[in-house]
Amino acid sequence: MSLDFKPTFDGFFRDETFVGDFTFRNSPASIRRFPFPFDRDEYMYSVNIEPHVPVVGRPNSVFQHAFDVDEHYVSEMRDRARVLAQDPLRCQSLPHMELAGWDLLELIMESKARDYPQWFSLSKSGDQWHWINRPLGIEQRFTFLDSSTLPYGPLEYITRQTQGDFTLQDERDQNLWVDAGMVTTQADWSLDFDIGMNFFEWHAPVPLAHEKGIFDRALKFLLKLQNGAPVRRFNWTMTVNPLLDTAPETYPEWGTMRTTVTPENVGEKLHLRVELQALFRLPRSNAIAFSIRAYLGRFDELVTVPKWGRRLHRVVRDLHPDLAAYKGFLRNRDAMAQWLSQYDDGAPTSPGIWPED
Amino acid sequence: MSGGAKIPVRVAEVVTVNALIKRFRFVARDGSELPAFSGGAHVVVEMDDAGTRRLNPYSLMSDPSDRSGYEISVRRDDQGRGGSLFLHNNVTAGMEMVLSHPMNLFPLDNRARKHLMIAGGIGITPFLAQIKQLVRFGGSFELHYAARNPALAAYADALKAAHGGKVNLYFDDEGQQIPLADLLSRQPLGTHLYVCGPKGMLNWVRQTATACGWPEHAVHFEEFLAPQPGKAFDVELTVTGKTIHVTETQSLLEAMEAAGVDAPYLCRGGACGQCETRVLRCDGELLHRDLWLTDAEHAEGTKIMPCVSRFDGRALAIER
Description:
The complex is a heterodimer. By secondary structure, chain A is α+β, with helices and mostly antiparallel strands.
């Protein structure tokens, strides 16, 4: 069996690529709902965790639903299938994590069927489930908790149909262990390398934050995460060309693209890559699901919002060099700041992330 | 609101299990499915006992995959502070109550090749849910269950009938004791050990496991501390600017709540860490009774867990 994939681009979903000719773009409406991550004109780490609930008065925001589905959905799923065909180890699950995979499948199917009934439906008769994914042309009848009735394990099955990377953390010995995941849209880290590591081990490469005790506090917080009360945070980096897959495994294919930036092409080459990360306690396995949803915003798209143009310039210009190096754009930072400066007239910016404030 | 999301429920059924234990079944008031949970999880039951708010944690014993209702079993504690007495004497079918979402501080290690379970008395309850979960997914387990006598060994007959040789019973009145050292010395590699029961049993099992060379990460235990009564004391709350009195039978957390202070909590048994509070001034002795803070932190005296710990002395100020 395999996941038969008959995508439909019905006028809402864009038909675009994240490799080769890079036809990825954001529509004007998509730019307005871009999750701009900076709520002030400078950036430093913080334990910036908040409840993953809709924002009052912002019904169209990426925070509205547990799993945001946007105009890039169908093309992103096609890109994921492409990456998995080349490297099946992008999705792995250690043997004790299958129940957590079912937890995640249930969470996503119930959420999407409730939040996007025009695209997804789920009906249940006891353990006999019937799932329809209209944008991808998928219809599946299966037995809940019986993996032999799906073309893939539950984690792989549902994350081939869900934007964003996912890891599943087992909780043991007062620590979290990344023992399963689907990772094809990552900012230069490897599931195959990290799988089986604990919270401190997989965060070891992050500069400055260990010394600040951020990971000790974050772990203590996460161990108390409750079912029914998910939380979220932002992370961000920069990507040259709209590449979803910037993995260590494919570094030879994309790493050199960072040398192609010139003062003239910054606006179209550089993308602010924002990760909307959410954490869910899973009910049956007591594991924690971590979703890492990457949004790409071209610099010349983002500066159409005057507040964001000013602020992005100031953040890029003033960022601690260790962080710019870790995020992989130290070599292009001056060109980026120079290009962005034409959109910064020095006017004050309002607090908060929203475009029109 | 502290304590996380709440579930409004109705008591569907109250069943007398034996002379000391009653079983309560809760269903969602709106008839919907309750959240699934994992074997070993507990809920905090909120009680309004003639104006006194009581919040006690109880392990869920029903099938974790059955989302139509939750079941708990409560042992009557005549010397306790009143939560179990309230449930036994006042709670009847049809009453509306409020539960916390399930939270698991005693989960199965799903990597285990075998789960070896040691239960004492009412400590059987989390294992009932875990065994249902393991049976469903084909996990290997072996239960050793000690009770005073057959009449007080709740659910022993049903367990024996369903699982035969995997269930081993021991009765104090008949002079029987779990052959622990022998058991622990002949388990296959990859076995995890779980124990839930009275404090004496927990200590015995943990010490024996250590003596037998069991690695710490393979030994799991569930210990809920009921807040113990003690001398009354006063405490200054620096953030809310109140000074409150903690009576002999109240916990510090309960006294704060009674004064309208929304203090954080989850397990209310000294185990989860949610209510950790900084001590700003202490002229006297902190009576630490929690399982969360380390020995070093207890000695340092700059933190307190208000759900179970108390104070004896002249003046105490905490950051709340």
